[in-house]
Design goal:
Blueprint lengths: L2 E3 L4 E3 H4 L5 E10 L10 E8 L11 E2 L13 E3 L13 E6 L9 E8 L2 H4 L6 E10 L5 E6 L9 E10 L2 E11 L2 H9 L1
Parallel strand pairs: 1-10
Antiparallel strand pairs: 2-12, 3-7, 3-9, 4-5, 4-8, 6-7, 8-11, 9-10, 11-12
Organism: Dendronalium phyllosphericum CENA369
Family: Belongs to the CAPAB/TerDEXZ family.
Protein name: TerD family protein
Length: 191
């Protein structure tokens, strides 16, 4: 049975799923019935950060144009861009092999942004049922889930969750912080 978190809650992945080594982070959303004249294209990304909360290199930013982390074992992999988000379940997925993430990576931040939000007059207030979930890749069992319930009526970028190391184990923080300025705002924050 998965643990459901609320904004700001933290949990040890080791305590809720002992022996967890490989996960996939599924992100999903639905678009409200609004017509901006354009389809919504939401994009999931992962920022692999050092102990100073900064990107280790540009190659440690995992997104639709850079699908795998630069380490030899490719410990973080984006499965590809979903251009419409149509359908139930996960719209985009990021796979993480927790055992193989290099030790200089202290935190993996999972984000969602709206592609060309300003040009398309779109924001997260027009999106509903957004969630992030961590699934045990070996058993396909959902371990942790965080459903966003806030109304982000002006934001075009969201930090959904952070997977981070503490005391030798991986933990998850349900962040739910919104930003204006889309992907650039997040890149500025972590660069």
């Amino acid at each position: 049975m998965a643990i459901t978190l609320t904004k700001g809650q933290r949990v040890s992945l080791e305590k809720v799923a002992p022996g967890l080594t490989e996960v996939f982070v599924g992100l999903g959303w639905d678009v409200k019935a609004v017509d901006t004249g354009y389809d919504f294209d939401l994009d999931a990304s992962a920022f692999m950060l050092n102990s100073n909360d900064k990107l280790i290199s540009n190659n440690h930013f995992i997104f639709y144009n850079n699908l795998t982390s630069p380490d030899q074992s490719k410990s973080v992999q984006h499965t590809g861009d979903n251009l419409t988000g149509v359908g139930d379940g996960d719209d985009e997925v990021i796979k993480i092999n927790l055992q193989k993430v290099p030790t200089d990576v202290q935190k993996i931040v999972i984000t969602v942004t709206i592609h060309e939000a300003a040009q398309r007059s779109q924001n997260f207030g027009q999106v509903q049922n957004a969630f992030v979930r961590v699934v045990n890749a070996q058993t396909s069992q959902e371990v942790v889930r965080y459903d966003l319930v806030e109304d982000y009526s002006i934001e075009t970028a969201l930090i959904m969750a952070e997977i981070y190391r503490k005391d030798g184990e991986w933990r998850l923080n349900a962040v739910g912080s919104g930003y204006q300025g889309g992907l650039k705002a997040l890149l500025d924050r972590y660069s």
